Model the fold of this input.
Amino acid sequence: MNIIRITTIAFVLSISHLAFAGEPYMLFGKWKGHAPKANFIWEFTPSTITYTAFDFSGKPLAEPNKANISYINLTDNTWGIDFKTTDGKPGGGIMVIIKDENNVVLDFPGAGGQALTREK
Done:
């Protein structure tokens, strides 16, 4: 009886991540993040990413930054985001780790990660 229960729990845990993986549409929409000196809003679409920094009163610190991108599926819950220059050439990239439908981590090469929460 315990073997069946343990096997069932192990199976459910092993596939539970699939509900949050597989397609980049899980990232589409607005996400908010926090840092010691500012708050951030990130917006993902099928072909662009927009980033805006705000002070703690909600005032934008600069104009939004927008870039053309493409998505690369790296693992079940990790996506690479390749930036494109204005002439379509590669311009660097970041990784996004999907924790669940409302939480992701942006991983910046050499700079660490930033946790984001879906904005509702």
Summary: Helices lie at 2-16. Residues 5-20 have pLDDT under 50 and may be disordered. Strands lie at 29-34, 39-44, 48-54, 65-75, 78-84, 90-100, 103-108, 112-118. The first strand starts at residue 29 and ends at 34.
